[in-house]
Every structure is written in C-alpha cells, then in structure tokens.
Amino acid sequence: MRIFRYLLLLFALVLWGAGLSSTVSHWLYKTGLIVDDYRFGDLYRLSALPQFKQKQPICPPSNRSSDTASTHLYLIGDSFSEPQRLSESDFRVSHFQRVAWEHPQRIQLDPNKRNVLLIESVERHFREHFAIPVNELIVENDTSQTPNQQSSLSQQWNREFHRKDVEERLESALFSHDWAFWIKEFKAALTLNWFDRAYTSVSLSKDKKNVFLHSDTDTSKVLNSSFSILTDREVNALVDSVNTTAERYQKLGFDEVYLSLIPNKASILERNRGDYNHLIERIQNSPRLKVPAVNTYDSFQKNATLVYLKSDTHWSCNGRAMWLTLVREKLGI
Predict the structure, then answer these.
(1) 4-18, pLDDT tens digit by residue?
(2) Is 102 exposed, middle or buried (0-12, 13-18, 19+ CB in 10 A)?
(3) Percent of the chain whose predicted confidence (pLDDT) is above 90
(4) HSE (side-chain half, CA atoms, 13 Å) at 30
(5) Are strands 256-262 and 105-107 parallel, antiparallel or unpaired?
(6) What's 71-143+219-331's CATH class?
(7) CA of 4: how far to CAs of 9, 14, 129, 259, 267, in Å?
(8) What is the 3-state secondary structure (H, E, C) of 236-260?
C-alpha cells in the first residue's frame, strides 16, 4: 500500500512538473504520456464542442525554394507563419528566416541579394503590434563579431518555469488524451443544449455553424475585437507606425518592405454580427500608407466558406494556398 502511495505521489509530481517546466513537458510529449491537445484545432480545444472537431490537415508542400534565387525573404509574423504552416519551400527564395513577434533575432543582410521583409499580423493583434516600435529583427553588419548575449539566471529561470499559465499547462498534461476529450465534449454539449451557453473563451455564430475566438467578437476587448470602436485618429497613428517601421528597415538595408494583415475568422464569416470596424480595409486603403500591402481581406471575403478551418482560428489549406499566391504575386517570389 505504501509503494502505491509513493507511485501516486511520483505521478502527481511528474504532472505538476509538466505544468511548470518546459523541459519536463517536452520529455513527456516524447514519451507519449501526454499528447498534443491542439491536434483537433485550437477552437475545438477551447470549446470542446464535437461538431467543431476536425483533425489538423497537412497542406501539400510547394517545393519552390532555389539556391540560385536572388531573393532573401525575412518574415516577422505570428502563428499563421509558424514553421508547421510555412517554410522556405513555399517561396522562390534562396534564404528564408522567420521571427515571431516579441522574440527578437539578430540578422546579417547579404548586400548582393534582394532583401525583402514581409510583416505579417493577424487582425486581432495588429493594434497591439504597431502601438509600439517594431524591433523583432536586429540588423547587424557582422553577426559573428557580436556573439549572442547570455541570458541571465533569472531570464533562464522564467523561460524554463511557467508560473502564469500553470493551470492551463496542467490541464493539457492531464486531459490531452481522447478519453478526456469525450468527457469535456459531453459537458460542453450539455451546457450548450440545455443552457444555450458555450465556454467563455469562444463565441458561436448566430446560426451556431461556426465558432470564433471570443476576443474577436467581444467589444470589451478593445485592441482585439473586429467590432470594437476604431477611430480615424488611431488608424492614422497605426499607418504612421507601419510607415516608420518600413522606413527604418529600409535604412538598415532592406530593399523592400511589405505588409500582410490576416483577417479574424469572424471578420470573414460573420462581419454583420455587430458594427464591424473595417480595420484592415481602413489601413490598406489609407492615403497615408506608403507600404505595399498583400490584400488578403478581399480574396478571403469572396471565398468565405473555404478559407478557415472549422475547428481552428487559422486558415485551411485553401486559405493558405490563396495567401501564398497573393504573396508570391505581390513580392515577385
């Protein structure tokens, strides 16, 4: 009996460690003790509604990259451009480097190449990204002469141990398997059918056929919602920030800078839900904007039912292919 208690305590400590530590959680993923709870989509994960359960697709590769291409492409982006969604093979370039928002990287430009910067942001985070200076790419003349700064002990500690999202990480560790999804689905379906309510992190469309991130529809989320108030003054300030960012990176050596805004799912599938603020259109059509923009909004609006995954905030393979075509045409890659 004592051995059983010790084993139970050890198991609890391992799961607690997974909630706190990145290293422990990665090890548990490798061993198969916990599995990816995003495998059926981020919105299914948040809503647990079985009608929105859809396995994440693997989109076909493009195989376009070329060692002889004259273009080096750099991309500042969010989850739409993560490695599992985009790679160098999707573009006719000889070098591709992506940096995530709020994770600066040092780079060295090749003056003998056409250096292009693409700044990508989903609609819900655009106002946050350009409310402050954009410094995600740190351009240096010779990165080999300026070695990476060593992180302090406190930075390493904060990177390894997560205190803010422990509860969410523990839930992922404990309830990531299919049996746990079944229990959560039963509870979510019961709540929706009996009380007409979904979990607070999501919103359902009026016809209940689509699920959205709640921050996209909640007007109290001023910087994120498609339906929050957006003044002309703020639009002008955001456009000026984009222009300033592009000018600075061109002075640092980039030949061209482009902007790509990805619409919120609700902006395409239910923009009549409230007073849509038309953020993307107002930015792209502003006479003050000096930066060429990849116009995803109009193309997505014309193909609304094809471009987003049922279970996710991100695009489908059709939406991804559409965006890639627009980028390739605009950037000439």
Answers:
(1) 675 656 555 655 555
(2) exposed
(3) 73
(4) 6
(5) unpaired
(6) alpha beta
(7) 9, 15, 51, 58, 54
(8) HHHHHHHHHHHHHHHHCCCCEEEEE
